[in-house]
Amino acid sequence: MNKSELRKFYLSKRNEFSLEEIEQMSHSILENLKKMPIWDNQNFHIFKSILNKNEVQTSEILDYLFEENKTILVPKVMENQLISCQLNECTEWTKGKFNVPEPLHCHEFPDNKIDVVFVPMLICDKQGNRIGYGGGFYDRFLANCSASTLKIGLNFFSPISETIDKESFDIPLDYCVTPTEIVSFSSTS
To answer: Which of 22, 115, 145, 162 is the Cys-Cys partner for 41 at CB 3.0 to 4.6 Å?
Structure first.
């Protein structure tokens, strides 16, 4: 299947899940994240879930980041770019481009200072090549991050064996975390 077919297929599969299944799987993803050696880092970028797209729910992860006193950053679309906005417990939210929840006001944080990025996705292959919604927002954003920034895809589905066609601007993941596994794409991890 090509990227468009894979995108359509996994959107459809994700839409089959009930809210209860999504909540349970999202909780399991958080439990797997807690097992990872990432918690000495300080600056975490995480997306706020789009509920009507049956995405991994990130509210528990956000709560955990607050409990751990991490610097929490969320994306905001400005023209064709994602910028990182520092979050606090009083942040007011609005619907941004594509109905994505975004902070109403943004205290911008430098991309090259981010330690960990939790990346939304539909599916990835066993080399860490991911398929998102097709806008290229995260690939452009990740290109501005430091080479040492960890890129962790959050997904309900395990990586597929089929190799996903990648473009020169595509940025592969370092990990994919699902409800049942933590997959590393690095030969050193």
So the answer is: 115
Query: Which CATH number is 86's domain given?
Result: 3.40.50.10420
Give per-residue pLDDT as tens, 109-129.
Answer: 999 999 999 999 999 999 999
Report how many helices (DSSP H) and strands (DSSP E) the chain contains, helices first.
4, 12
Q: Tell me the β-bridge partners of 103.
A: 93
CB 173 within 8 Å of CB 119:
yes
For residue 82, report the phi and psi dihedrals to the nearest 5 degrees. -90, 135
Structure tokens that stand for 143 in this block:
């290109």
Task: Give the predicted TM-score (pTM) of the model.
Answer: 0.93
**What tokens appear for 25 in the block?**
């799987």
Q: Is residue 189 part of a domain?
A: no
> How many domains does the chain divide into?
1
> Other C-beta atoms within 10 Å of 67: how many?
8
Beta-bridge partners for 120: 154
For residue 160, give both structure tokens.
Answer: 């597929």
User: CB–CB of 3/157 below 8 Å?
Assistant: no
Q: Calculate the CA dihedral of residues 32, 160, 54, 108 and round it to 10 degrees.
A: 70
